[in-house]
Amino acid sequence: MNPDDVIPTYDREGPAWAATRDRRLTERPWLDRALMLAPRHAGRRRVLDLGCGAGRPIGEYLLDRNCILTGVDASRPMIELFARVVPRATALHADMRGLRLGEEFDLILAWDSLFHLTPEAQREMGATFAAHASPRAVLLFTTGPKAGVAIGRIGRSDLYHASLDPDEYRTLLDEAGFEVLGFWPEEEACGGRSIWLARRRS
Q: Does the keyword section mention Methyltransferase (predicted)?
């Protein structure tokens, strides 16, 4: 499958998928851990959600936790949904690849989004994370458990996923100035996701 089809696939299938997305927030323990570790700016945490989707349930939860939320998504239908679901957040229609907002954030999320990029594009994301990270900012993202390409499904369409080897993610994070705080491969309590938590060293 062509990875360039990911954004058109979300344009086509995303709104219907979002309407049926599991809203039990199985992600909550990892979100809470990341929020606990993230620094505050003027008493609040600034959060950048890369590949934010429709904003429910994660965006809603972050706003309930008094975060200042910026969502970025390359799919116009998805970011338009995000803007309606969480109108107090900032919604940006943009591609995370090469993103440069000129702002710093205390928590950066790439939850169920980074793995839609090619391995080559993922290797370049360390610079994007670093460019938006405040001192001691926390980074939370998901990948596959090992290097390779996998084809999933959304609606009636195939959907591209790719991952690097965990050791390569560790190296890339280190080079970008992040220390790995934890890696949970195929975490059963979170739907089998492989979860990374890291923090900027300074």
A: yes
